[in-house]
Specification:
This protein is mainly alpha-helical. Helices cover 60% and strands 6% of the residues. The strands form three sheets. It has a two-stranded antiparallel sheet with strand order 1-2. The protein has a two-stranded antiparallel ribbon with strand order 3-5. A two-stranded parallel ribbon has the order 4-6.
Length: 233
Amino acid sequence: MAEKKNVKREFVEASTGKTGSRPAVVTAANKKSATTKRIVAVVLWVLALAAEVGAILILNGIWYIPEEQKLYWLIGALAVDLILVIIGSQLWKKSNRLDPASKASKVKFFLWNNMGLIASVICFLPLIILLLTNKDLDGKTKKIATVVAVIVLIIASLFSIDFDPVSAEDLAEAQQTVGTGSVYWTRFGKSYHLDPDCQTLQNSAVVYQGTIEEAFEANRTDPCDFCALEQAG
């Protein structure tokens, strides 16, 4: 018996005659996990903002720190700020793969996928501006602290940007293609595979198997080209 091929279907609204893909199905567990990650991310960003405020208070002399120790305190605050921002951004990006925003809402889609970058700018740029405009700070301290602040802003931004954001439409299309079957991926690969015997998996000692939702959570959101060609053939 010939193997039954998956057919890409088009859904038509009976009342309006409009066509479109079936919306993405996000399980209650994934929605809950995504919401929890987003809440924790926001809390971490608030703590990062508090670290920035602490650095500003030290810079302005409201919190007294001896001049010879001020640089170390500023760098310490920046380090704490950086760690909190990056962890928050990673959690936020994970939440977006569990429960992605729809491209239909352009503003929400933009904000949801750039929230980490926005947090990075808020948590570092004001301090950088104050460092540059401060006339009372020791020259050496000012120069070193400013350079460090700019570097950590760049690092935080790079770790916070989602260079390949996914949408609810991407998830819906993948769910429609895969159905209830399993997909496969490797530790270092960037794609998910429909065929466990795909030629690109032959040299991998460990192959992960799971649902398409689990593949998206693992940041494997791109279908393998070879598997797609085989399925279409």
